[in-house]
Amino acid sequence: MRSRIPYSCQTIDEDDIAAVAECLRSDFLTQGPRTRAFEEAGAVYVGSKHAVAVANGTAALHLVCMALGLESGGLIWTSPNSFVASANAGRYLGADVDFVDIDPETGSIDPDALETKLNAASAAGRKPDILIAVHFAGHTHGFDRVAAICAEYGVALVEDAAHAFGAVYQDRPDQMVGSHPQSVAATFSFHPLKSITTGEGGMIMTGSEDLAKKLGILRSHGVSKDPALVTDARPDDGDWYYEQHQLGFNYRISDIQAALGLSQMRKIDTLMEARRDRARRYGELLSHLPLHLPQATDRSSWHLYVVRLDRSLTNVTRKAMFDALRGRGIEAHVHYIPIHTQPYYRALGFAPGDFPRAEAYYETCLSLPIYPLLTDEEQDFVVAAIADALGHA
Hints:
Layout: H1 14-24, H2 33-46, E1 50-54, H3 57-67, E2 75-78, H4 85-91, E3 96-99, H5 111-124, E4 130-134, H6 143-153, E5 156-160, E6 185-189, E7 202-206, H7 209-218, E8 223-224, E9 243-244, H8 255-265, H9 268-285, E10 291-292, E11 305-309, H10 318-327, H11 343-346, H12 356-364, E12 365-368, H13 376-390
Parallel strand pairs: 2-3, 2-4, 4-5, 5-6
Antiparallel strand pairs: 1-7, 6-7, 8-9, 10-11, 11-12
Helix pairs in contact: 1-8, 2-8, 3-4, 3-7, 5-6, 10-13
């Protein structure tokens, strides 16, 4: 057993290394045939009409908001229980940001809270332009209802599916996350700790051909050679000619990263089953302890395995348990510090107490190690350490 058990880590094998080495020996290192093949493979796997690969998951969110026309004076809503990128995507464009409190059983936006808040916002004449719904930990509980509420109120729905590549919708067992008919787009991250990795990287799934074209241009400086978009070409201009009609970004992914992503895609089902097996095993091993366990489902991608201390059954603090695990080489983590409590967002007017359920979730949550390479022996060691910290046999 390793002396250090991280909360997550990448799964890289010799096939991955060979795929990257082959790319390094090829004619293309930046965007080329492997990037296109990676997009096609992603779209086919998810069941989306279009896929656009980008530099990272944050870039994916930023570009989607930009392509949808979000700008200064606009408004997005998202979950306070997420990494700051989910909200920052709106701020990059000068838009206002607000949050919808969570369901503590899922860690994601509470549909009831969303409906109540949208009803009030509609009456006040300030509905959000976009709702960025986060599939926290790779779970999708309640998302179908969130989608229906957004459709009823005419709010564009974007899925922040950074945790959820390889997941299946809880209420749609035949549909992969990224193919929901009521979503404008879904964004994924391929950070090393996600379901598959490209080192850094991301992908946007959308059913809209127009949106996919906008995204493809925006990720590459806003520049295009597409004859349908070029307006000022002269008869003697050749294939070198391009035009910029809007301000874009260099958010491209490289063929090196795409080569790794393609190799990882070939084993996504195996990687998902390994994560789901670890989650099932945790559910069995931890069931006797004073913890709230995540809702078990084999449709989740199980990016995180988050437990919460049951305050009614134990006086042990989250900090004490965290320190006890770290002291034994178990690198437990905490997901997430509520976004609205960060100094940047407090300066915008938010304050502790604004979203009490997200704050209560944060006070008791702890992310345990989960990843395909986690062994039974290591998992047993983690569970034993938790039991010791809680004073249970």
